[in-house]
Task: structure prediction
Amino acid sequence: MDATVPPEDRALAALAARGRRAQWSADREVDWQLPVRPPRWLTRRAYVSAISQLYHGEVATIRACRRLADEISDPAARDCLEVQIADEMRHAGAYAAYLDRLGGVAPIDPAVADAHGEGTTWNGAPAALVVLYHVVLEGEALMLHGDFRRWFRCPLFRDINRRIEVDEARHVAFGRLYLRSRLARMPADQRLDIYRWVPAGCGGRPPSRPPNVIGDGSPRPGG
Ligand SMILES: [Fe+2]
Ligand SMILES: [Fe+2]
Result:
């Protein structure tokens, strides 16, 4: 590779190449013959609603990545975003097909809509959107996947999710890599603007847990 390319761009190019090699087909590689087994401790409606929030999160992330790909000028980052858009489209399709077997996608939870909609209020440097979508929301989605893996034993859901989790970890890695170099180069006042905005972008909550996707009053694991 060209020695004049900065190391962070080389790392982004390597990540995009890894993402391209890791593309998979939901039609061919998920075993759609596996049984669908919603948990017994949760109503079917609440289960469908919880899984539907993953679907809505994917659709919102596709929109965010398209916007970022328009606003970010550097080719290595745009390459990563293009791969991510293909990933998220595959994820949304796989969740939609799974939810079809349970009667269809449930409406988006207002908290999920708010968290993703917050990006539309930002008009500054695109790095803020990377903080919101790739670090906060993708990071929370990864934690949620971990929770769902422990709570939900549906064989088909698990087969879909284990593939999606690998892609999501790559998206979080993109956010970290991109921000490490771009934030360091940014004027201090712009960085401060981002730090001030992002907590609001998380609805004022610390970025540690996602909105309540199970729905109020529904039984919890072990509860
Ligand atoms: Fe995804
Ligand atoms: Fe993602």
User: Anything to note?
Assistant: The chain has a mean pLDDT of 86. The pocket of fe (ii) ion (ligand 1) is lined by residues 58, 61, 87-88, 91, 164, 168 (CB under 6 Å). DSSP finds eight helices and no strands in the chain. The longest helix spans residues 155-185.
